[in-house]
Amino acid sequence: MKIGKAADPNNGKASDMSALLDGIRQNNFLVIGRAGMDFFPHPPGTKTEEATEFRSGLGGSAANTAAGICIFGGKADLVTCVSDDSVGRYCLNQLDHYGVGRTHVRNVGGEFRNSLAVYETRVEQHQSVIYRNGAADFEMSIEDVEALDYTAYGALITAGTVFAAEPSRSAAFRAFELAREAGLPIIFDIDYRPYSWPSPQVAEEVLSKAGGLADMIVGNDEEFGFMAGDIAKGEQKAKSLAETSAEVVIYKMGEKGAVTYTGNDVITTGIYKVEALKPTGAGDSFMAGLMAAIAAGHDLKDAIHRGSACAAIVVGKPGCAPALPNLTELETFLKSHPGPSDA
Fold first, then answer.
1. Predicted local distance difference test score (pLDDT) of residue 15
2. Could you give the 3-state DSSP secondary structure of residue 265?
3. What is the mean pLDDT of the chain?
4. Residue 11: its pLDDT value, please?
5. Closest by alpha carbon to 157, among 69, 283, 29?
6. CA 342 to CA 143: how far, in whole Å?
7. Alpha-carbon distance 130 to 271, whole Å?
8. If you count Cβ atoms within 10 Å of the first and of the last residue's Cβ in the chain, which end, N or C, has fewer?
């Protein structure tokens, strides 16, 4: 059981490293956030406006992360809302396909609709179009998260988009409170998507609040810079969070690798260079691979490398969820690849 912040035995932190890692090693996750539908033109390289054929797949950061965890043999239950229509039912069927628990996925009617992403399988002049008006997942309520038995899980994972609108925002913060009371570590992917938020100012305030409540935070240099109010101050923001509230903060820098802060320790890691087909899906695959590797007993640096390898695999294949690797594919990739770049 984690010690509450009020006791302050860990320099103001909500937990210690052992509690965080022990929670992840249970390999049983509560994942809060959206499930959506992805469309991508086929064959790879096709512009959306010139397409005559599209492929579909499960979308949404939280759903993709949950799917990746399940593909690696872990357990993940998703908490969200989907539209009570054919697209919502498609998402439910996709969750079933990947083995993601959906007992806590609620259907909503009316004019609320599932998110839809149309993106291309190409890097040069890549185009992504996201439809989020009246998003069904933003209807997740406090009642939804209060109905959960948090003691049945080892850790909670969520991404920043869940905080972008009400009632989902209040529900997500309530879930953080309940997870804390139950002793669950909180893993937070900043995942800043400007199109989901009413203003940058609201996003900065809310994401900073969520980051201050998390035990592990994952984000890229732009996201931490956004939280700090200046991209030049992003790395200092990441370091500050590790010193004051989080046990692990992973500061991703694209092709330059990542810097991970764990209190007074710093871990630098490179990336696995590949010929990318598209820029999408890497973050979700990284998170799934990171969680699976820690759960399997790998140390943190090795787990970050394995998460990076998962990201490299996904950007080299069409789709996001359909591109997620299993353990055999990951091990084959690691054996055949010359290794990560220098950090």
1. 62
2. strand
3. 94
4. 46
5. 29
6. 47
7. 28
8. N
> Token pair for residue 298?
């790998």
Which residue ranges of the chain lie beneath pLDDT 70?
A: 1-15, 343
Interhelix angle for 17-25 vs 282-295, to 10°? 100
Please report, for residues 80, 97, 147, 248, the alpha-carbon distance to residue 90 in angstroms, rounded to integers and kept in the order given: 15, 10, 25, 36
Look at residues 238, 179, 228 and name the one whose alpha carbon lies nearest to residue 15: 179
What type of residue sits at position 208? S
**Residues composing the chain:** 343
The position carrying tokens 């994972």 is 157
Domain ranges, ordered by start, for the chain: 14-336
* CA 125/CA 134 separation, integer angstroms: 28
- How far lies 74's CA from each of 28, 126, 179, 200, 331, in Å? 6, 33, 19, 35, 17
Structure tokens at 265: 């320790």
Q: What is the pTM of this model?
A: 0.94
213 backbone φψ class: left, alpha, beta (φ>0; ψ -120 to 50):
alpha
Please give the structure tokens belonging to residue 50.
Answer: 């010139």
